[in-house]
Specification:
Blueprint (H helix, E strand, L loop, with lengths): L16 E2 L16 E4 L7 H10 L3 E4 L3 H6 L8 E4 L6 H10 L6 H17 L2 H13 L4 E4 L6 H12 L4 H9 L1 H4 L4 H8 L4 H7 L4 H15 L2 H7 L5 H11 L7
Helix pairs in contact: 4-10, 4-11, 6-7, 11-12
Organism: Comamonas nitrativorans
Protein name: Tyrosine-protein phosphatase
Keywords: Hydrolase
Length: 255
């Protein structure tokens, strides 16, 4: 059998990757071929869809907002699509500020991104609770995504990896892989560059440890720990957590 691959090369998206292989609870590895994260799937080619079929991917969890889905929607017959909308705010806030004659520095943009991550923790928790319910209700492999697969998707991945017992260093490593893999469409980049300075775009279209750290800080301030956040805000009971481990982690060695 060929070795599993982290990054799945597709023509219609660039940030499609398998979450398998990371070491989780009790040293058990995450199962390959069960959960994938990605940027949006609207531009997949016929060959890409055949590749997803071969991987057994049958479900797609879409964290994009209504306007994003309207502009870049998809309805691939082999993918059961679940819309769990988290409306984007940071780019809109940046554009409004610039159109009103304001200026936006790199530190301002980092602060906006940190606000976005705090909102993911505090306001989007019910959405992520539904995401975990989908992980537990069906054993078919799935992919979850937003537009670039970096922020809403990045926090979803961090939550799942933490729930499965993955070390913070490995979670951060997975999070930062977006900077190596995601390539924004040339047309989108050109349109954005007409309104937003390039150094600001660089912040908006990449991920930084400071973004994820702001989410963790919001968790610590309001819940004290990720364990309490997952239990109280996301609804992961001990039984649900045990089921999640049983479904997505390899069996302990010797069994």
């Amino acid at each position: 059998m060929p070795e599993p691959r982290r990054h799945i090369r597709l023509h219609g998206c660039t940030n499609f990757r398998d979450l398998g292989g990371y070491t989780g609870h009790q040293g058990r590895a995450l199962r390959w071929g069960q959960v994938y994260r990605s940027d949006h799937l609207a531009d997949l080619t016929e060959g890409d869809l055949h590749q997803l079929d071969a991987l057994g991917v049958a479900r797609a969890v879409d964290f994009r907002g209504a306007q994003e889905r309207a502009h870049h929607g998809y309805a691939w017959p082999q993918l059961q699509q679940h819309s769990l909308a988290i409306e984007p705010t940071v780019v809109q806030e940046a554009l409004q500020l610039l159109k009103a004659g304001g200026s936006l520095s790199v530190p301002d943009t980092v602060a906006l991104m940190q606000d976005t991550y705090r909102a993911l923790v505090l306001e989007a928790a019910p959405v992520y609770a539904r995401w975990f319910a989908l992980l537990l209700e069906d054993e078919r492999p799935l992919v979850f995504h937003c537009t670039a697969g970096k922020d809403r998707t990045g926090w979803a991945a961090a939550l799942l990896l933490h729930a499965l017992g993955v070390a913070p260093e490995a979670i951060a490593q997975d999070y930062l892989l977006t900077n190596q893999l995601y390539h924004r469409p040339a047309m989108l980049a050109a349109q954005a560059a007409r309104h937003i300075p390039q150094e600001v775009l660089q912040v908006l279209w990449t991920v930084q440890p400071a973004f994820l750290d702001s989410a963790y800080a919001a968790v610590a301030q309001s819940w004290g720990s990720m364990e309490r956040y997952l239990h109280e805000a996301i609804g992961l009971t001990p039984d649900a957590l045990a089921e999640l481990h049983g479904r997505y982690l390899e069996l302990p060695s010797g069994r």
